[in-house]
Amino acid sequence: MKIGSKSIGGGNPCFIIAELSANHNGDLNVAIETIRAAKKTGADAIKLQTYTPDTLTIDCDNDHFKIEGGTLWDGKSLYELYGEAYTPWEWHKKLFEVAEEEGLICFSSPFDNTAVDFLENLNVPAYKIASFEIQDIPLIEYAASKGKPIIISTGIAEEEDIQLAVDTCRKVGNNDIILLKCTSSYPAPLELANLNTIPDLKARFGVEVGFSDHTYGSLAPTVATTLGAKVIEKHFILDKAVGGPDADFSLDVKEFTDLVNQVRDTEKLLGKISYEISDKVKKNKKFARSLFVVKDVKAGDIITKENIRSIRPGYGMHPKHYNDILGKKFKSSSKRGEPLFIDMIDSN
């Protein structure tokens, strides 16, 4: 599977997405500079969100539409929040152009079919289905029908929700599916991350997997990488002083750079399954144990535990031969500190 120029899964590096979300704070220039900064962090992609308040909800302030429950946005109506957070559609073309100039892959989360149609005109390389849209089966079906990779966050999903979403993609012939482990809490406590779910998602649903992170810091994405995440998504902000609805749990330029470096270092540490040793390590095998003469001996002397030992360094015979040669005779004289070799031993 490829998203833009990047291959996803297998032995390929983690696909790291900087999520712009609402971190432009309503300023196009901030959005542009955020994209340019994302490139400098080492991110592979920048992701937008394509909606308006009216494509997500209605302008109503009764209790059903008020945000409560200990979130960062308590007291606001949904319409009010989305009005603050959305990325104007007239910005999208410019933002895609800036991303292309920077060599970043740019795509988006559509929140209704009109957004999919709009993004198709921008030739997006993939679609991201947000956590709260995993139950919007008509939207998933329509986006998946475009034949592009579908990334689905699972933040509010139970197993049957995930299965239905995956089945919906496959029903329209789209098997390029990536499921992201996600905790839909903003910010998300570490104890709710349950990252061990990542390899189970891959095995259970037969898809590529990743992690959409709302925790503080970069520890969780690093751990997710060790568990097989091939996509990492994290909210990115140019400067937290800009403020905005998502600023609190976003990473700034230095923090996101650290995240990218930690993920890349983790990938180096994980490497591949291998029982070979590098040339550098092979050179260091000289410090391993081998058989040495540890007492001056003459031709005909019996080989005993007193005149040979398994010691460092590794220039002599392999220690596995130790018991086999005890009791045999030396062919010639040897000095203490000489490596022991098979041609020094009388085979009779």
Describe what this molecule looks like in 3D:
With 348 residues, this protein is an alpha/beta fold. The chain folds into two domains: 2-51 and 86-270, Aldolase class I (TIM Barrel), CATH 3.20.20; 279-346, Alpha-Beta Complex (Type Iii Antifreeze Protein Isoform Hplc 12). The protein has helices at 28-41, 53-56, 78-85, 89-102, 113-120, 137-144, 159-171, 197-205, 219-226, 253-270, 279-284, 322-325, and strands spanning 2-3, 6-7, 15-19, 45-50, 105-110, 127-129, 150-153, 177-182, 208-213, 231-235, 290-293, 308-311, 329-330, 345-346. The longest helix is centred in the last third of the chain and has 18 residues, at 253-270. The radius of gyration is 30 Å and the shape is elongated. The termini are far apart.
In terms of topology, how is this protein built?
Layout: E1 2-3, E2 6-7, E3 15-19, H1 28-41, E4 45-50, H2 53-56, H3 78-85, H4 89-102, E5 105-110, H5 113-120, E6 127-129, H6 137-144, E7 150-153, H7 159-171, E8 177-182, H8 197-205, E9 208-213, H9 219-226, E10 231-235, H10 253-270, H11 279-284, E11 290-293, E12 308-311, H12 322-325, E13 329-330, E14 345-346
Parallel strand pairs: 3-4, 3-10, 4-5, 6-7, 7-8, 8-9, 9-10
Antiparallel strand pairs: 1-2, 11-12, 13-14
Helix pairs in contact: 1-4, 1-10, 6-7, 9-10
